[in-house]
Amino acid sequence: MATALLTAAGYAGGTTPLAHPAFGMRDPALARSDYIENCGGCHGVTGSTAPALVPELRGRVGWFLCTPETRDYLLRLPNVAHSRVRDDAQLAELMNYVVYVIGQPNIPVKAQPFTAEDVARARPRALSSVNLTRERARNVAIAMKRCGAPASLRDFYDGQTAR
Amino acid sequence: MKSFSIWQRGMVAALAVGVAAIGFPAQATDPHGLEPEESDIVTIETPKPDWFYVRAGWGIDGTAIYDGRSGKMIGIVNSSQLSDMAIDPAGRFYYVSESIWSKGNRGARQDMVTVYDSKTLKLLTEITIPDRILVDERKQNFILSDDGKWGYVYSFSPASAVNVVDLTKRKFVQAIELPGCAALIPNPGVGFSALCSDGTMATVAAPTGKAEITHSAPFFAASDDPIFENFAYDPAKNMAVFLTYTGLVYTAKMGAAPTISQPYSLQEAAGYAPATTKPLSVGWYPGSRQPTAYHAASGELFILMHMGEYWSHKAFGDEIWVLDVASRKVVRRIALKEPAAHIEVSQGADPLIFLNDEKSAGLILDAKTGEEKHRIEMAGAGVISAAPGL
């Protein structure tokens, strides 16, 4: 398990991750394989897709742990809330892999891992009748203001606007 | 009877558009009885009920038009690799929603709805739409309103969205985000609907204006027993017909709040036990790339079936099952000599079935008797559409 996590962390940022209980993953290997199977097809197995028009997760997605609202945004994304991973705890671990391993090293201080309860609360409130682009922009603005996320988070990947 | 398609002869230009006539010097009669052929420009008719539109297949441009009655090719609509085609309900235009690049595989990206005249197959205009992440060759990616005034182009950019196009003014109107939903369903007088990952049907009312999104109660399990996105729509009954991977049949009366029926089992309609999602439970299952076709006048659904187990939904069809949707009975079964990848049925009174496979072998059958009418080599390996019931 630790090996899998270290390998993935190597892809994601090259720094040594914290011990996995702090990431809210009892089974990081499963969380990683769940990510690859359910998300990696579009987001990339290492969370990197630039310059494709897909939000780059690597080094960026962790900013969304900033406030209860921005955390909730990630869990309410339809492809998360409606995931084939039906078990709330298992989905929470998948999302902890996303934010802590793929998102590192840019994790807001004092961020807390997702829990099964967080997932259970978010699932019935999936963002399926709103403009997701606007909703994302709103949450990025919160992460910038409250947690110092960089303005480049507004783009889908660093340097998108410059292209 | 054997017909050869234009691809086999190595020609790529649309048939209807001839080349400029080359002046031949006046000559005495050729000793071999040959006459110089003069090129001209011809027009074709507007869509006829026996006509089929067959995509060439992945990586090959063009949608060939076939007269199912004669088995002859009539022309090609110039659809690019990453495109979907829709036919004007009044038969005046062919619309192609497509993504192309200025230098073929690179350069400036251009997304548009391209408008062709149905008689000359000439380009009339291009309607620019926003860039989208690619979607391709699914009939439910691009639908028109029943009056032909509005086009709805599925877009994934990367939020699920629908680009609304005014086909009268030939202008892009707006993109409506529809997160978690795809596969567009006509909904006359309301707007359009779509199927969603939470098992609901979303309905977008007033898509050209305020675009209000509502959801039905969940009625299918997108993860456990998904609905084939190749579903049917009956304009006269204003009803959609859905089929799941295990063979559950749902109908939905469309409207501002669509009413969705309780499902029934296709296999049970044929006298078998209902199919299940359990592993190693072998039986007849629906499948292939385009597994269903619907003949609106008779209410019959034609389904490509194969022996397999759950999650074998990509297997090509060895039989066609003909389901009378209203009476819930499989009324005919047609065994196929070669497995088929796509199926379509014409909308006239004496319907014809068009089948093809990944090797582009086309086959036309009488939809009532299953009798083989035509075989067409290199007919196209992609999705098939039928002319609208006119």
UniProtKB/TrEMBL annotation, chain B:
GO MF, any single term: methylamine dehydrogenase (amicyanin) activity
Q: Which domain of life is it from?
A: Bacteria
Task: Show which residues constitute the signal peptide.
Answer: 1-28
Cystine bridges: 181-196
Which is an annotated Pfam family here? Me-amine-dh_H
InterPro entries listed in its UniProt record: Metamine_DH_Hvc, Quino_amine_DH_bsu, WD40/YVTN_repeat-like_dom_sf
Enzyme Commission number(s) of this protein: 1.4.9.1
Recorded GO CC terms: periplasmic space
For this protein, the parts annotated as crossing the membrane are: none
Q: Which UniProt keywords apply?
A: Disulfide bond, Electron transport, Oxidoreductase, Periplasm, Signal, Transport
Its name, as the record gives it, is: Methylamine dehydrogenase heavy chain
